[in-house]
Amino acid sequence: MSREGARALARDVFIYDLRDFDTLLGGLVLTAGVTNANFYAVVDIIIDISPPGPFFLQDENGETIAQDAQPLLPGRYFVVADGTVKKAAEAAFTRMMSFQTGTRVDEFRDEVRERDGRCVVTKEENLNKEFGLWEGFEAAHIFPLAYEHQWKTQGWTQQITILPSRRSYGTINSVQNGLLLRDDIHTLFDSYHFSINPDDGYKIICFQRDSKRIAGTFLDARLLNNTRRPLETLLRWHFRQAVLTNMKGVGEPHFEHDFPPGSDIMGDIQSGPKAAERMEFELFGRLAHHIDLYPEEKQAGVDTDKEDKHNGNVSDKG
């Protein structure tokens, strides 16, 4: 079942406008590594101030919170600003697990495996990689496959410098949009339970209780020193999505993803929140491996390896 408000149940940090104690702007499940400076940065994402202007935060005793490296403490905090303070209008992208099926992502998987060789969050090595055994490790997309249309319209293709070998794979399957993660960590990453803050040394911030002991640690430095590393802008995008999903208001709904045989999946989706977006994810995840994205090209004998010579990027034209 989908659960609205579930992301807020474990919160111990609450955010209000100083002039409106009754309206919750958002909150946070406090985990290791979150500093006062981090708190200012994420609050700035979940609020809009009109007219735009600076703000500062006060605690329940009226003390101003410094933007420093001191650990954030549990409690209620109040936004102080000259303008009107509201929850940000920006909406988060609905996301569930990225099902990686179909030959069109084989190259993505293989290149991420070759580059990383370990879970880049837990640092756990795959001791069996030399034998081609990858059970327990998965190549995760930072920007989800189900939003490939948005990937194109928002201009992400133009930022990719390491192109897949074939146009039909799509630039969203560049190694620069991937991380090798332990399978359980992949689930949490896709659900925005944690993210990586590239503006604070690539620190891992957990937005729900941290059972994996990764909060406050940092992304594997070996990955950051690799010329084929993920784009910083993509990690920043994921971090922003995680903040909006978990911290704004009561948070985005939590969606069930583990459906036993015989479950009424469509009924659960249609009766729950964000039905259209969830349907898109389910259809993509469960049918993608049956779909040929470029059937006309194959029938016409078009060379799908051909690049757009005008701009040096793989063409996104169908």
From TrEMBL:
Molecular function per GO = endonuclease activity
User: Where is each DUF7881 domain found?
Assistant: 11-85
Provide the HNH nuclease domain boundaries.
Answer: 119-197
Q: Which UniProt keywords apply?
A: Endonuclease, Hydrolase, Nuclease
InterPro entries per record: DUF7881, HNH_nuc
Annotated stretches, region: Disordered: 296-318
Protein name (Swiss-Prot/TrEMBL): HNH endonuclease-domain-containing protein
- Organism the protein comes from: Cercophora newfieldiana
